[in-house]
Design goal:
Pfam families: Lectin_leg-like. The chain is of the alpha+beta class and 427 residues long. The protein is built from five helices and 13 strands. It has a seven-stranded antiparallel beta sheet, with no helix packed on it. A five-stranded antiparallel beta sheet has the order 4-5-2-7-13, with no helix packed on it.
């Protein structure tokens, strides 16, 4: 029994859109295919297919695994693929937030349906062929993502540590992770002696491709010769014209360290300048203390003891100040950046302060005016009497108006009701 499966063992989401095996005569086999919309039935099952593990089928696609670690899922056909020649087309997407992928995706063509296992979510020692889309670099050779074809007769143990290693029948490298559009893979199987229909090209197209290739090759050789004639000093061997990925990363690290070294050098120069300035001030103060001590000793010998104590206190204060300056100089670079940022805020504060001063002046003027008003004696002024306001209407007129309004309103309601009854007779 030979079945075909599309399986993913990873925490990365990989929805599968279609799987279409066809025969040598391009006959569509609906029992070996699925495609949205209306992919699943009301009970959540896929017609002619079974899903296992953490697979999540929906109306548009099948999500083989959710976005969680250590998850596996699979989708298997119920019918046997008893075809001598067949071709399948798989549309899928593998995406995730992490730069490091999980195990990957596998397309199985085996004798029996595989259960959950360690090889891309399926059992090891399979009997058939597996097409692996490997997205995790187990051997550390930076050769992922890759597409591998591995065959097994039921006795081979898959080499996980070396990503298949010498067990692969063929491989290629292709970046299919985190791509906005769906990726399509077409796999065909033909009997020996039979040409693969997908690989056949008309003779006219083959001739056009060959002519175009020869034309581009001649143009490239011509440009290379012209460049070598114009720049004879740039004779670089081909193996030295390109840098490896490790060399590129090393250059990036070296460039970053060079920038850090330059910044540290500038900071050290600023610290040296600050220390020099501080030392100059300290020497100047010490010299002034010596001159004052000499003057005191020559003119007033009775005050020598008090002056010496004051000078000792002054020198101790200078030493403490030097220590504080040394501690502060460590953060000079940060302080300079903060000062630049605070200059703008200081300008805004100065403007606000001028506005505040103006407001205070206005408040002072208003306060003086209020004080002058409160201090002045105000004579009691009697308000004039308000004349009586005559009423606009009497009670009798108001009642008559209400009665007339009610009569008119009732007449309008009766008239509208009659018109509605009269209009209903025509329907």
């Amino acid at each position: 029994m030979i079945v075909c499966v599309l399986l993913l063992f990873a925490w990365l989401p990989a929805p599968i859109l279609s799987l279409k095996p066809v025969s040598a005569h391009r006959r569509f086999e609906y029992k070996h295919s699925f495609k949205g919309p209306h992919l699943v039935l009301q009970d959540g099952t896929i017609p002619f297919w079974t899903h296992h593990g953490n697979a999540l089928p929906s109306s548009e696609r099948i999500r083989v695994v959710p976005s969680m670690k250590s998850q596996s899922g699979s989708v298997w056909t119920k019918s046997n693929a008893a075809f001598e020649n067949w071709e399948i087309e798989v549309s899928f997407r593998i995406s995730g937030r992490n730069r490091i992928g999980a195990d990957g995706l596998a397309i199985w063509y085996t004798r029996e349906r595989g259960a959950t296992g360690p090889v891309y979510g399926a059992v090891d020692h399979w009997d058939g062929v597996g097409i692996f889309l490997d997205t995790y670099d187990n051997d550390g050779k930076m050769n992922n993502p890759a597409i591998l074809v591995v065959g097994n007769d039921g006795r081979l143990t898959y080499d996980h540590l070396n990503d298949g290693g010498s067990q692969t029948l063929g491989s290629c490298f292709r970046d299919y992770r985190n791509i906005y559009h769906a990726v399509r893979i077409r796999v065909s199987l033909t009997e020996p002696g039979t040409m693969d229909p997908s690989s056949q090209l008309p003779s006219v197209e083959q001739e056009e491709y060959q002519k175009e290739y020869e034309r581009f090759e001649k143009d490239l050789e011509k440009r290379k010769d012209e460049f070598q004639k114009e720049h004879p000093e740039l004779q670089t061997p081909d193996e030295e014209a390109f840098e490896t990925e490790g060399q590129r990363e090393f250059q990036m690290v070296a460039g970053g360290q060079r920038m850090i070294h330059e910044e540290l050098k500038k900071l050290r120069e600023r610290l040296d300048a600050a220390f020099t300035e501080q030392r100059r001030h300290s020497e100047h103060l010490s010299r002034m203390g010596k001159d004052e001590r000499t003057t005191t000793a020559g003119g007033h010998p009775e005050q020598d003891t008090g002056d010496s104590e004051r000078l000792a206190l002054l020198l101790n204060g200078q030493k403490e100040m030097v220590q504080q300056v040394q501690e502060i100089s460590v953060n000079i670079a940060d302080m300079l950046s903060k000062v630049r940022q605070s200059q703008q805020s200081l300008n805004a504060i100065a403007e606000d302060k001028s506005h505040v001063n103006e407001i205070q002046e206005h408040i002072h003027v208003v306060k003086n005016g209020i004080n002058s008003l409160t201090n002045t004696k105000v004579q009691q002024v009697s308000c004039p009497e308000v004349p009586p306001i005559p009423s606009c209407t009497s009670a009798w007129h108001f009642l008559v108006f209400i009665v007339l309004q009610s009569v008119f309103f009732l007449s309008y309601l009766i008239h509208r009701n009659r018109r509605e009854i009269h209009s209903k007779k025509f329907f």
